[in-house]
């Protein structure tokens, strides 16, 4: 058979949702489990002009590209918060920004943010030129979210105990980026997409 997409309207018999509560991550969004039990969808709800997985995967590629930029925003917020904190937090009569290991962390952050920005920019240029491929999107999502994840953790380290309070952002970003690391294709799946592109051999079949 052929995979097709449908619009399932709220109130359709057999279709139900269950909100997921008690989340540590993405707490401001509503996350639900969708259940389809003997659910019949009318033909008028069929999405036209697309067959197979091209439709949903095309949507995912658009979302993943946006996520690559979103990861940069998360990383920048954590970097700036850590930088400002380090310049104003005084220990041993001087700001902790004067310590070598703190500067090493901050320098690593801005280096990785700059690389992530350039990667996302190049993918955008490929999109504009009509030459972007799924593995380009996978590379952007995989790299930039991994970078954001590590920068959020480093920012929390620089802030010390303050980093786990709601007075600062990095703890929230650190929790949220864990969800982003998983959704829209896990880090491992995007690694395999890139691996297949490089070798010509699919490792997930």
TrEMBL record:
Gene3D superfamilies per UniProt? Butyryl-CoA Dehydrogenase, subunit A, domain 2, Butyryl-CoA Dehydrogenase, subunit A, domain 3
Identify a single GO molecular function assigned to this protein: fatty-acyl-CoA binding
Q: Which top-level group of life is the source organism from? A: Bacteria
Name the Gene Ontology biological process terms.
Answer: fatty acid beta-oxidation using acyl-CoA dehydrogenase; fatty-acyl-CoA biosynthetic process
Q: Which UniProt keywords apply?
A: FAD, Flavoprotein, Oxidoreductase, Transit peptide
Question: Which Pfam families does the entry mention?
Answer: Acyl-CoA_dh_1
Domain Acyl-CoA dehydrogenase/oxidase C-terminal residue range list: 52-198
The family note in this entry says: Belongs to the acyl-CoA dehydrogenase family.
Record-given protein name: Acyl-CoA dehydrogenase
Natural source organism: Eiseniibacteriota bacterium
